C-alpha cells in the first residue's frame, strides 16, 4: 500500500514510485552523487517523452554535478539546491507521495535526496502541440482567424494577448479520479455577472468523474437538469468570440486538450450571431434575420409541404398542384421527403468520415442517385428534391453555431405531426415548442431573453447588430431567477 508521506530512505521512496507506475519503462531514475567524497545521493525522476530533457540536463543535472564543492554540511541540502543550484523559475517542495505522483504525470521532474523526507518538484513539461491555425469550425471572411489549440496554457496566452487587464481572472480546477484533467474558469472581474459565476462554480464542483476525454461532459454539467436538445452552453474555437463573451459579463471554461472554450450562459438569440458582423458594414440589419428565416425553413418547411400535400391539395389551382405535389410518382409525398432527408443525412455523415480523396466520388454518387436518376425514374417529385435541398442548405447555415441538434430533432417531429394532423397539428406543436423554450434557463438566465422576458435595453445586439461604440460602452445585464 502506498504511504502518504515520503520516508528518509529514498530507496523506499523510489520503490514506491516505481510500484505506483507499475514499473513502466519510460519512468527514468537518474542517480547522482554530490558533495565531499560523494556524501549525498540524489535521484532525478521523470517520465521520458513528456519533459524537456535538454533543459533538465542544462539547468538541473549539470548544476548539481558542478556545484558539489559549494555544498555546506551545516545547511539543509534541499534549501541549497533550490536557492543556489537549480536554475528554474518555479520550484516547489512536498512530503506527500500523492503530490509527487501527480507532478510526475503532469510532466514535472522530481528530485529525491537520501535522508530527507521532502521531494523537489521542477516544472519541465514539453507537451507536443500543433501550430496556431485558423478556426476551421467557425470560419469568417473578415476578422481574427487564429483559433484555440489543445494546450490550455497556449489558449490562455492567446486570450491574455487580447484582454490586457489585471481584471482578467483564471480559476484552475482539476477533474478525474483516474486521470486528472485541468479545467480553467475564465472571467473579467468587475464585468462578470456574479450570479452566473457562482452558478458555474457550484455546478463544476458537483462534477464527479473518472476522467475527462471531451468537453461535452463539462457542457452537460453546466446546462444542468433536465437535459434538453437546445444548447444552453456553447462551444467556441475563436479568440474574438471568447473575448467578446467575457466582455459581455459571461464565463468561459477551457478544458485542457480541447481546442475550444465553453461559453455560458448561452441564449437562443446568440446562435444567430456571427463574428464577422462586428468587422463589416454589410448585413448589419439583415444577416441575423436571414439566419432566423433559415432556421424556420429548416425546421418547418418539410412539415408545411406535407400538410399542403395531404390536406390542402384541392384548395390549390391545378397548375400549382401538378407542379409542386406528387401525382404519378411511386412514393407518397411523406415518404419522398422522409427518405430524401434520411439519404442527405447519410451523405453528410459520410462526407466527414471518408478519406478526402473519396469526397468527390461521394458527391458524384449522391448527385446521380438523388438527382437526375430518381426524378427520371419517377421515384420522387422534382419539387420534393428542391424542398429538401433548401432545407439542408438552411440547416447547414447554422450548423457551426450549435443549432444542428435542434433542427435534426424538431424537423422529423413536425414532419410526422403534419402528416397526420396538418396545419392544426403544426400550430399546436409550435406553440408547445415555444412554451418549452420559454421554460428553459441557461445558468438561471431565461433562454429566450431579451425577447421573453422583453428587455428593450438589450435589443441593441439581438435581431440586428447595433452601433459598435454603443455596444462597447454599454453594460450587459442578465435577468436571473432567485433560485
Main traits of this protein?
483 residues, alpha+beta, five-stranded antiparallel sheet, 12 strands
How does this model look, in words?
This protein is of the alpha+beta class. The protein has three domains: 10-123, no CATH class; 152-266, no CATH class; 287-445, no CATH class. 43% of the residues lie in helices and 13% in strands. The protein has 15 helices and twelve strands. The protein has helices at 10-20, 53-66, 77-85, 97-105, 152-162, 194-205, 216-223, 239-247, 287-311, 318-324, 333-351, 359-376, 382-397, 404-439, 468-473, and strands at 27-34, 40-47, 92-94, 108-113, 119-123, 168-175, 181-188, 234-236, 251-255, 261-264, 441-442, 445-446. Strands 1-2-4-5-3 form a five-stranded antiparallel β-sheet, sandwiched between helices. It has a five-stranded antiparallel β-sheet with strand order 6-7-9-10-8, with helices on both faces. A two-stranded antiparallel ribbon has the order 11-12. The radius of gyration is 30 Å and the shape is elongated. The protein starts with 9 loop residues before the first helix and ends in a 10-residue tail after the last helix. The relative contact order is 0.08. The mean pLDDT is 83.
